[in-house]
Predict the structure of TetR/AcrR family transcriptional regulator.
Amino acid sequence: MKTSANTSERLIESTRELLWERGYVGTSPKAIQQRAGAGQGSMYHHFDGKPALALAAISRTAEEMRAAIDAQFAAPGTAVERISAYLRRERDVLKGCPLGRLTQDPDVMADATLRRPVEETFAWLRTRLTDVLAEGAARGELSGALDPAATASAIVAVLQGGYVLARAANSTTPFTEAVNGALGLLTAQAATQD
Amino acid sequence: MKTSANTSERLIESTRELLWERGYVGTSPKAIQQRAGAGQGSMYHHFDGKPALALAAISRTAEEMRAAIDAQFAAPGTAVERISAYLRRERDVLKGCPLGRLTQDPDVMADATLRRPVEETFAWLRTRLTDVLAEGAARGELSGALDPAATASAIVAVLQGGYVLARAANSTTPFTEAVNGALGLLTAQAATQD
DNA sequence: GTCTATAAGCAGATAGAC
DNA sequence: GTCTATCTGCTTATAGAC
């Protein structure tokens, strides 16, 4: 058995990086090959073409993101504590969300196969966060007046929008501010609970 | 004087549409010419090249957005009412924000000239919203415990992130939910005020 | 599995005629 | 102002040798 990363593996990882940095439309097979140190023929031997390679890359990114979030939410603590930890965990803010950015890519959104992992992951995340919030409401940590699903969507949107603001400003400040603002609102309404 | 739209005008408008639909990297001079009904030579007569045309398009979009938001915030009403009206105004949700999407474009962000209108518009928007929130706090409509700047960033982020979620889901639902969630939090904390 | 050759078409212009 | 010709290099492969 081989211990070093094989060519197929390097191609997938290179594609993941380039999709994150430049998007699908901005990434050429040639750029992938160069980053992976693989030749033209080698790439087309392992994958049918750019869409197939992108699907492998996007699927892996989606899986990793899901696993990371699952671990985060499974940690002990109140709903607000776990959400706070999730929002404040270390991130490469200026690079943005590797999945969220694909949402702006016309060729990804136009291809049902490429689109599916993106769609499913965000749907799953919103559901997962809704559960955490509903749990918090059931325990009396949060106001029952809040709609858990709406609040969950707002929180995920703050994250995704925070990336947008950070990139626009070329600074992590607006991202941090947005997260603080969201948590400020969440704890301010919790103060209503007494 | 001419009354019909001239070629230069049509080129700018076509570029604006394409930047919105496909981004800078995904838009070719040829596509712009075809949409504008202009020839190659015609385009290069009026503009130095793709970056110059994009700058004209992006600048105009930024100006329009700023004027629209200014009008929105100048309307009468409490801080929460004006913010609610802003968040809930009619939008082409699935198309996303024409300026926010450029944030994901590597070639726009790498070019200081193209980047500036995007950066300035979002900086201005956050400041403007911060003023509205500070005003609300001064009037006693909102809790003084909230940081106006952080809350403003969170609200703008909800909007930008709402677009991302809507595109991921291919549905306006998550956008509406996120807006409702944000307004829910804002009014819930206002309930603390008594 | 990897390499080189080949190819139709697009990207992003420049040059000069009209 | 607009048009056609021309150009270099990239895109996204396919074919076949090694």
